[in-house]
Amino acid sequence: MYCYQCEETASGQACIKVGVCGKKSEVAELQDDLIYLLKSIAFYNMKAREHGVNEERTDRFMLDGLFATLTNTNFSKENAEKLLGEGFDIRDSIKQKLVSKNISLGELPEVAKVTPESIKGIDTSFNAPGNEDIRSLRSLLIFGLKGIAAYAHHAYVLGFKDDEIFKFMERSLVATTDDKVGADELVGLVMECGSMGVTTLALLDKANTSTYGNPEPTKVNIGVRDRPGILISGHDLRDLEQLLEQTKGTGVDVYTHGEMLPANCYPAFKNYDNFVGNYGGAWWKQKEEFEKFNGPILMTTNCLVPPKATYTDRIYSTGIVGCEGVTHIEEKEDGTKDFYAIIEQAKKSKPPEQLEEGSIVGGFAHASALSVADKIVDAVKSGKISKFVVMAGCDGRHKERSYYTDFAKALPQDTVILTAGCAKYRYNKLDLGDIGGIPRVLDAGQCNDSYSLVVIAQKLAEAFGLEDINDLPIAYNIAWYEQKAVLVLLALLSLGVRNITLGPTLPAFISPNILNVLVEKFNIRPHTTVQEDLKVLL
Ligand code: SF4
Ligand code: SF3
């Protein structure tokens, strides 16, 4: 195995024996094969699309396949094998269709000829020999595509899709197999990946808000009640909706965990009186917190940590998540899911052990943030707010991430943090106060809601009559961990945002030359110390 896609990669270089995340080498290798197979599918599907003979199931498979390989999503060997089998079937059926219609395929590249047998002899890893910068750009592009796939998947299950997104994915995957596509062209694709990221995030925003309403400023309870509960984690709102419907009147409560926290702020979910609030913190604390929850836990997407034996029988996966020993709830033909088994187990469980009490405030996605735009603009003009600091992204298990808590605490009283993603758990329970009624931490929601931060920035630029988004009093101190954050970063770059501070470490897959390009073009810098970064950012 050779995996270097996340921030916690071994020794800051690559996981080569086993993943720091718990991914086994055989799974990592099968997932590399799967990416290779997706490139083969992309080759044929581009042709199929040109001739109008492409099929819907290919689109869904593209999303599933890429999403399954995202960090902390799927650890199951069986699942990777199943996806490979399904992928070859899909690929062969597209090929068959093209051949039967006499559609010319031209000279077939190697990737188009791969078979279930031959793939075993191909080095599909990200460490395949070749030019370091090309490898770096191809990796960056593929990791950005994984982010697109995850966000597009969430929109897709709510009935929203955009063919342009699929076309871009296919074109990019094929480009990573073509030695004629050089560094300049790859840089272009990486930037396009960022703007396609903005398109995808906008689509997801539309899917979420038109289905569940616009998030509202909400005080989310972080304590517990004295009834059995189900904990739901990950990012999939449709799973939450179905779980709330099915637990109605059963005497079983529902709590969110990790990235599901912002769901408490949607009007559509506020009507369920068994929807209690949020339990625990960011994903990496789950071993400790799931133990104490006592009831069953439903993982709808990343981030899953392979569970301890003591609570494996209480963990359920669904959608694209998977792990050996964990019960998987399949989606039915009509797209619904039956959570009966989870609810029955919950009924027999003890209520959750209380971890903390009180509440945290969320729900500042673009609609509610912009509803107080006048107030915000006035506060900036009168000097009450000197700066906004975007501290969006991911949390992670490394101790150095206490930097983000210290940074939030050290920010002057006249600054406001804009956040999205699970990075917020490093400071969302600190009492940072407010500025004339505007909370000093404005939480737009999941990493899926990063689009809100873009809309807020664009609207503020309009309100201040600024042409360049970089002239706004906004600084960026982004924390990354997995590939959705890679995409969000590319999305910001594609919008022309400069001077981003990135941490806790820079991606291992960025080669020194490519880093130079990013520094020269966008002035990206690694974070240093709280004091030094405060000086630079403010
Ligand atoms: Fe290592 Fe991260 Fe890959 Fe897991 S996802 S194997 S921790 S680089
Ligand atoms: Fe977090 Fe996994 Fe990235 Fe959605 S839950 S932000 S890390």
Automatic annotation (TrEMBL):
Top-level class of the enzyme under EC nomenclature: oxidoreductase
Enzyme Commission designation: 1.7.99.1
Keyword check for Metal-binding: yes
Cofactor note: Binds 1 [4Fe-4S] cluster. Binds 1 hybrid [4Fe-2O-2S] cluster.
UniProt GO cellular component terms: cytoplasm
Cellular location(s): Cytoplasm
Amino acids binding hybrid [4Fe-2O-2S] cluster: 235, 259, 303, 394, 422, 447, 482, 484
Residues recorded with modification Cysteine persulfide: 394
Residue numbers binding [4Fe-4S] cluster: 3, 6, 15, 21
GO BP terms: response to hydrogen peroxide
Alphabetical list of NCBIfam families matching this protein: hybrid_clust, PRK05290.1
Name used for this protein in its record: Hydroxylamine reductase
Organism: Methanolobus chelungpuianus
